[in-house]
Design a protein that fits this description.
- The chain has helices at about 25-35, 50-60, 70-80, 100-105, 110-120, 155-165, 175-185, 245-255, and strands at about 10-15, 40-45, 65-70, 90-95, 125-135, 145-150, 150-155, 190-195, 200-205, 205-210, 235-240, 265-270, 270-275, 280-285, 285-290, 295-305.
- The chain is of the alpha+beta class.
- Strand 1, helix 1 (about 25-35) and strand 2 (about 40-45) form a beta-alpha-beta unit.
- The chain is built from 8 helices and 16 strands.
- It is globular.
């Protein structure tokens, strides 16, 4: 089947998505798009920075869509390339989490279905959603800000990420299990200074996130009432708890029923600054740098093919 309108589509592929288990997905997506009659520019690189570089170069020419193949890290790559522009983002979820893809309704358990959905979505108007612009990030060079689409973590889960990324052994997904156990052993609450739309709050928390999307970590519904197009951020705060109660809390986070507990608090606002000594913030699973970080939600900043 040939698409009614031939489009130039840049496809950025993460060959290491799901720790290399999803290598065939990128070529399959490229083949399907070509079969529809589109002009496809497939891109890959040995590392994340290299892929950003070649994708940015490809986008200097007229582009009808940027498609990313991978998990939430690849979504973050795409968001940082097209947020605030009129180039829509297409997603073929092939990672371990795929939270943003699930949030916009893209099939996440069947890559063939996701590729077919992408091809069909190219023939209709994209969905317009909000994106979050972060200032105070590290390693951004001259860039004044960085974007995310899903959730910025600044508590327990961020510390697990930071520990796992510093481990040389074991390799693969199992290092996150080791990091999780290590952080549980040393679990303690931290003092945070939050400024939400100009109002200052001091809170003690062991788990804290600033959410645009509802989920992180492959389905943990940290902010079950968050909407991608309501113009607001949801700040999720878990008050100090014992290690035992924290472990018991986790299953409720997957179902979203944790929001009914007295130890859970939500704040909402357009602009949120998070500060706490020695904490590194992660957004869409990517390292954004040490706090403080300021998050500003930009309504309608992102077009998504769904």
């Amino acid at each position: 089947m040939v698409s009614p309108a031939k489009k130039r589509i840049v496809v950025a592929i993460n060959p290491n998505a799901s720790f290399g288990k999803s290598r065939p997905v990128g070529p399959a997506a490229v083949a399907a798009l070509k079969q529809r009659g589109h002009d496809v520019v497939p891109l890959s690189a040995p590392d994340y920075e290299g892929l950003v570089r070649v994708a940015r170069e490809a986008l200097t020419e007229h582009t009808d869509a940027l498609v990313v193949v991978g998990g939430d890290g690849m979504v973050n790559l795409g968001v940082n390339l097209v947020a605030g522009t009129d180039v829509p983002l297409g997603i073929v979820p092939a990672g371990t989490g795929n939270d943003f893809a699930a949030g916009v309704g893209i099939p996440t358990g069947d890559t063939d279905a996701a590729i077919a959905a992408l091809c069909d979505a190219l023939d209709r108007a994209p969905r317009i959603v909000d994106a979050a612009r972060v200032t105070g990030v590290e390693g951004s060079g001259a860039a004044p800000h960085r974007w995310f689409a899903g959730v910025l973590s600044a508590g327990f889960d961020a510390r697990v990420n930071e520990r796992a990324n510093s481990m040389r052994f074991p390799k693969g997904a199992s290092r996150y299990v080791f990091a999780l156990v290590a952080e549980l052993v040393t679990l303690r609450s931290r003092r945070y200074e939050l400024t939400v739309d100009g109002v200052r709050h001091e809170v003690d928390s062991c788990l804290l996130s600033v959410a645009n999307n509802t989920t992180i970590g492959g389905g943990m519904r940290v902010a079950p009432d968050a909407l991608l197009d309501d113009g607001l951020l949801d700040v999720f705060i878990v008050k100090p708890v014992s290690r035992f109660r924290f472990i018991r809390l986790f299953p409720k986070v997957f179902s979203g029923t944790h929001s009914e507990l007295e130890i859970v608090e939500f704040l909402r606002g357009r602009t949120v600054t998070v500060a706490s000594p020695g904490i590194v913030g992660y957004a869409d699973g990517e390292r954004f740098g040490t706090l403080p970080l300021t998050v500003e939600l930009v309504p309608g900043a992102l077009s998504v093919l769904v």
